[in-house]
C-alpha cells in the first residue's frame, strides 16, 4: 500500500518493526511496545531526523543501522536487550501552564 | 503539519476547559491536520460538552529547505494574514511547536503586544525530534516567546532561558 491513514492495525500484530528515522514512525512503534530497528538513509536524511534516532539508540530503546548493514543487523540482533520506552507526560505540561495562568 | 499536529494535540490532552475556546491556525497547504484536529475535538466534546474551537488557515510561510531570503518574503506575506486573524481572535495564550506557520502568528501577537492592543502569552514547545539542535522556528521564537519549552536536557544546557519538563508528548 502507498498511504494509509493509520498503521495502527499493522503495528498491533507486528513482532518487529523496521522503519526509517521519522519521529512519528519511531514513536508510534515504541509506544506500542514493539521492538524497533531504525534504518538511516544517509543520502536522503535531513540531519535533524537523525537526532531522535541517535538519542533513542543511546537510551537503548532501538537498534540502528543503515541500508547496507540491515541484513547483518537482523542476523545478529538481540531484541531482549532493548529497553522499554517510557511514555511522555503531557500532564506535566498542563500543570506548568496552570501555574503560569494561576489556575492551580 | 503532520507530525507537529500530532504532537500539539498530545500536549492538549491534559488541559482543562479553562483553555477554551481553542483557535487552530493551519497552513493553507496542509491537508491532513484538519481531520486530526476535528477528531480530537470531537472526542473532547464527549467529556466537555461546552467545548468550542475554530479553525483558520493562513498561507504557508516557508517550504522545507526554502532559502533564507525568500523565507523572509513568504513569512511577511503570511503576516498579512496572521495579523488581522490574531487581532480578531485576541488570544490570551498562543501555543505552538515549530512548524513555519507559527512564526507569523507569534510575531503578529508580539506586535499587537508592543502596540498595547493585546498582551498574549506565547508558549513554544520544541518538538521531541529536537534533541541537540533547535528548529529554525525555535531559533527565532526563543527570543519572542514568554516560555520556551524543550524536551531534552542537552537543549536546556544550550538554551538556558528554556524550560525543561522532560518528555511531554
TrEMBL record, chain A:
Coiled-coil region: none
Domain of life: Eukaryota
Annotated ranges, domain Glycosyl transferase family 28 C-terminal: 1-90
MF terms (GO), sorted A to Z: N-acetylglucosaminyldiphosphodolichol N-acetylglucosaminyltransferase activity
Claim: Endoplasmic reticulum is one of the keywords in the record: yes
EC number: 2.4.1.141
GO process annotations (BP): dolichol-linked oligosaccharide biosynthetic process
GO cellular component: endoplasmic reticulum
Protein's name in the database: UDP-N-acetylglucosamine transferase subunit ALG13
Organism: Myiagra hebetior
Keyword Membrane: no
From TrEMBL, chain B:
Top-level taxon of origin: Eukaryota
Keyword Cell cycle listed: no
Keywords, alphabetical: Endoplasmic reticulum, Membrane, Transferase, Transmembrane, Transmembrane helix
Membrane-crossing segments per the record: 67-87, 93-115
UniProt-annotated location(s): Endoplasmic reticulum membrane
InterPro entries for this protein: Oligosacch_biosynth_Alg14
Gene Ontology MF terms: N-acetylglucosaminyldiphosphodolichol N-acetylglucosaminyltransferase activity
Membrane as UniProt keyword: yes
Primary localisation category: endoplasmic reticulum
Membrane topology annotation: Single-pass membrane protein
Gene Ontology cellular-component terms listed: UDP-N-acetylglucosamine transferase complex
Subunit structure, as described in the record: Forms with ALG13 the active heterodimeric UDP-N-acetylglucosamine transferase complex.
Protein name according to UniProt: UDP-N-acetylglucosamine transferase subunit ALG14
Organism: Myiagra hebetior
Amino acid at each position: 500500500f502507498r498511504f494509509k491513514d493509520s498503521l495502527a492495525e499493522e503495528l498491533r500484530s507486528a513482532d518487529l518493526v523496521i522503519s526509517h528515522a521519522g519521529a512519528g514512525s519511531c514513536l508510534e512503534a515504541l509506544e506500542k511496545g514493539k521492538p524497533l530497528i531504525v534504518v538511516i538513509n544517509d543520502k536522503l536524511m535531513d540531519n535533524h531526523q537523525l537526532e531522535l534516532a541517535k538519542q533513542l539508540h543511546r537510551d537503548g530503546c532501538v537498534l540502528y543501522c543503515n541500508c547496507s548493514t540491515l541484513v547483518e543487523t537482523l542476523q545478529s540482533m538481540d531484541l531482549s536487550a532493548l529497553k522499554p520506552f517510557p511514555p511522555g507526560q503531557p500532564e506535566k505540561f498542563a500543570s506548568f501552564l496552570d501555574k503560569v495562568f494561576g489556575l492551580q | 503539519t503532520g507530525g507537529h499536529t500530532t504532537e500539539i494535540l498530545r500536549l492538549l490532552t491534559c488541559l482543562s476547559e479553562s483553555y477554551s475556546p481553542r483557535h487552530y491556525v493551519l497552513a493553507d497547504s496542509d491537508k491532513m491536520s484538519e481531520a486530526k484536529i476535528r477528531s480530537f475535538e470531537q472526542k473532547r466534546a464527549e467529556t466537555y460538552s461546552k467545548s468550542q474551537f475554530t479553525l483558520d488557515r493562513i498561507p504557508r510561510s516557508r517550504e522545507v529547505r526554502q532559502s533564507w531570503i525568500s523565507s523572509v518574503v513568504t513569512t511577511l506575506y503570511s503576516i498579512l494574514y496572521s495579523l488581522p486573524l490574531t487581532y480578531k481572535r485576541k488570544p490570551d495564550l498562543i501555543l505552538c511547536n515549530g512548524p513555519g506557520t507559527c512564526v507569523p502568528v507569534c510575531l503578529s501577537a508580539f506586535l499587537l503586544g508592543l502596540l498595547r492592543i493585546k498582551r498574549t502569552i506565547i508558549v513554544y514547545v520544541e518538538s521531541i525530534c529536537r534533541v541537540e539542535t533547535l528548529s529554525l522556528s525555535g531559533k527565532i521564537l526563543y527570543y519572542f516567546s514568554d516560555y520556551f519549552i524543550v524536551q531534552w536536557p542537552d537543549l536546556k544546557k544550550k538554551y538556558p532561558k528554556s524550560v525543561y519538563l522532560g518528555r511531554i508528548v
